[in-house]
Amino acid sequence: MLLSACLPRAGTPTPEGGIIPKVLVVETFLADIAQNVAGDRLKVDSLLPIGLDPHSYEPTPQDIAKIADSQVLIVNGAGFETWLARILANAGTQSQVIEAAAGLQSRKIYEGEAADGQPREQGDPHFWLDPNNVIHYVDNIRDGLAQADPPGKNIYEKNAESYKTRLSELDAWITTQVEQIPPERRLLVTNHESLGYFADRYGFKIVGTILPSVSTGASPSAQELAQLVDHIKATGAPAIFLETGSSTQLARQVAQETGVKVVTELYSHSVTAPGGEAPTYIDMMKFDVNRIVTALK
What we know:
Elements: H1 2-6, E1 23-25, H2 28-38, E2 44-46, H3 61-69, E3 72-75, H4 84-91, E4 96-99, H5 131-148, H6 153-178, E5 187-190, H7 196-202, E6 205-209, H8 222-235, E7 239-243, H9 249-258, E8 261-266, H10 281-296
Parallel strand pairs: 1-2, 1-3, 3-4, 5-6, 5-7, 7-8
Helix pairs in contact: 2-5, 5-6, 6-10, 8-9
């Protein structure tokens, strides 16, 4: 809060003769990433409040006004913000849109990962749950901010390099933590299809998901839940992992039939308030990894 109070206000002139742009970021975790690139040069605001599931987001008139008033809008992209195209068309905004995930290749949903047990092609936008993909985010954000504010280019480049070093250190730390889990227990059952990139990077196998989609808005059929129960029993997966705000009803039902434990409160789509358990993206990843390692080792 003190840092934000000291940052230049949007629209104020810079010593180099430029104007500080008003930067709006959709998700809270992405706002933290962008602020690390922006540094003291400008203040980054988040559109979504802390704790809100972006999958179920419905913009209010006030939110649409914020979007229209921004000069730079940073989004995850890759189909994550499905509501955005309509908003941009109706808001009359001239915002420069920076898509953090632009240029990344979406993973496949492999056989056995989906609740229905069938392999399929489906775009997965949850790139940020692998810190190496966030390094790519940082490059896109750096370039976009430099385009919006050319006098600040050197600052954004310096900040980006510093933050990418921290992300590489995070990747190494996660690798070390995961080594505590025996390879045969690196099995993930999740609320929806969100941890694929994390699993690919750190040697986990996705056993299945409660909801048969990369979105939390899907509903499983009785047959899909029965298939998931059978798959958990066959693989010996020890736990089901749920994000904050997820309903536990179906997970508890599956857990009762399989004897596994339910681990709640993973922060995968939002950071916490300052002073909380996961106030930054890096804190969010460390908190989740600790929960996963504790449950599986």
